[in-house]
Amino acid sequence: MEEKFRDDRVCFVCGEKNPAGLKLRIRVDAKRGESAADVTFPEHFQGWAKIVHGGLLATVLDEAMIYAAGAKGLKCVTGEMTVRYVKPASTGIAYALRGRFLEDKGRIVLAESSLLDSEGQEVAKALGKLFKTRT
User: Which of 26, 36, 59, 104 is the most buried (most CB within 10 A)?
Assistant: First the structure.
C-alpha cells in the first residue's frame, strides 16, 4: 500500500469538517515541541453513565503526541502507545490536553501526552513510539 498522508480536515479529533468529531483546536509550540488543547467530552462519548469511554481518552492522548511531533516538523503515525488511566474523566467537564516531543531516534520518535483536570491533576497519560512517514 502506498503511503499517502494528507489532511482533509475530517479527522475525528481535530477535523472541523467531521460532524461527529471533537473538533479540537490544538495549539503547538515549535520551540518546545509541545501541543495543547482544551477538551470537553459530550455525553455521547461516555462508557459508563457520565464517564468518558477510555478509548476516547486514548484517542485524544494519541493526537496530542502526533501534534507535538508535528511541532518539531515531523510527520508521524503512531506505532505503539501505552496509556495509564489515573482516574475517571467525566462528560461535560473541561480538561487540558498536553503533548510533548521527547526524542528523535531516527525512524522512531518518542512522545508523551497527558489529560489534566481543572486542578492540574492527571486523569490519564500516554507514552508513544511514533513512526515517521515517508510522505
Answer: 26
